[in-house]
Design brief:
Elements: H1 5-24, E1 29-37, H2 42-52, E2 60-64, H3 67-81, H4 87-108, E3 122-127, E4 133-140, E5 143-151
Antiparallel strand pairs: 1-5, 2-3, 3-4, 4-5
Helix pairs in contact: 1-4
Length: 153
């Protein structure tokens, strides 16, 4: 699927930022982001997305979530792995992450919310899989952003 140029640029920037954070966290934790255009139910579209990403699972269950839960489950494992940095730096990096989400939102719709974590529907996704981590979706316009928080022991 060909993404609009603004969205492709925002996604590339976000991927770079998240990859840099993973390196600073000594590859013990990270957050990846994907995107797809909605065409059906959240579960059906997500199943197709996970299949394209080669993530195997047996069941998917979604529930409405909120900004605090999203940050807690997506960001916290990364924050713990960044504990060698000062609290101020870690807080700045967390805000930069939230700004990346805003950049993606405004790339989808320039009139969209800059901080969609306060206004767009967020779903926590539970699925049975060998992958360890959290998965959340964020719906903006006709698009769904998929955030996968990964961590290792």
């Amino acid at each position: 699927m060909q993404l609009p140029i603004e969205l492709d640029n925002a996604l590339s920037f976000t991927h770079g930022f998240l990859k840099a954070l993973e390196i600073v966290a000594n590859r013990k934790a990270g957050i990846s982001v994907g995107i797809y255009k909605r065409s059906g139910t959240l579960e059906a579209d997500l199943a197709l997305h996970l299949k394209k990403c080669k993530i195997q699972y047996s069941t998917i269950k979604t529930s409405l979530s909120n900004r605090d839960e999203f940050i807690k489950k997506s960001w916290s494992p990364l924050d713990i792995s960044l504990s060698h940095l000062s609290p101020t730096v870690r807080e700045d990096l967390k805000w930069q992450f939230e700004e990346c989400v805003g950049l993606l939102s405004t790339a989808i719709d320039e009139r969209g919310p800059f901080n969609p974590l306060f206004s767009a529907p967020i779903h926590e996704v539970k699925f049975k899989s060998d992958n360890k981590g959290s998965l959340h979706t964020l719906e903006i316009g006709d698009w769904t952003l998929v955030f996968f928080g990964e961590h290792s022991a």
